[in-house]
Amino acid sequence: MFSKDSKDKDRVPSIISFGLHIVGNLVSEGDVQVDGIIEGDVNARSVTVSEGAAIKGQIRAESACVRGTVEGEISANRVELGRTAQVAGDILHVELSIDVGAFLEGHCRRLAEPQKIGKAKEGEDSASTSADKPVIIG
Predict the structure, then answer these.
(1) Residue 121 belongs to some domain of the structure
(2) Hey, how many other C-beta atoms are within 10 angstroms of the C-beta on 26?
(3) Please, which contacts does 73-80 make with residues 24 or more away whose CB atoms are closer than 8 Å?
(4) CA 103 from centre of chain
(5) Number of domains present in the structure of the chain
(6) What is the model's pTM?
(7) Which of 32, 54, 69, 77 has the CA that lies 20 to 30 A from 22?
């Protein structure tokens, strides 16, 4: 199940489990599945917000699937809002899917070109302050 092969590592998501409450930013080169609560920005290749989970902050990803609650901007190439999604914030997307029953309060804007998510380059300025150092996952 857990292999040291780098191909397999890319397919296993980092999971923020139910009952876990994180205050701070998360950065991952892989996939992140949120079943708990995050108060901070999430930057990953793929972000899944499960039903009952919540993110209060910005999501930046290549793909984002929301079935829980998000309070903040979502910026992703592909955004999917499930029927139980509750989103209060703008969505910047290339592709957007909204199921019947999803709640969205915000604006939707199509991105001119797809974004690539990766690590910040050395010396690149970050929006977070020294007190808000990101948690690196993956």
Answers:
(1) no
(2) 24
(3) 73/106, 75/111, 75/115, 76/47, 76/115, 77/111, 77/114, 77/115
(4) 18
(5) 1
(6) 0.79
(7) 77
What are the C-alpha distances in Å from 120 to residues 14, 36, 52, 126, 134?
Answer: 19, 26, 30, 8, 11
Range(s) of the domain holding residue 83: 17-113+129-137
Burial class (CB in 10 A: 0-12, 13-18, 19+), 47: buried
Chain segment 94-124, per-residue pLDDT in tens: 999 999 999 999 999 998 888 777 544 444 4
Phi, psi for residue 46 in degrees, rounded to 5: -140, 135
Query: Which residue in the block uniquely carries the two structure tokens 């920005």?
Result: 41
How far apart CA 130 and CA 50 sit, in angstroms, is 30
Lowest mean pLDDT among 22-26, 81-85, 123-127: 123-127
Measured in degrees and rounded to the nearest 5, phi and psi for residue 116 equal: -110, 125
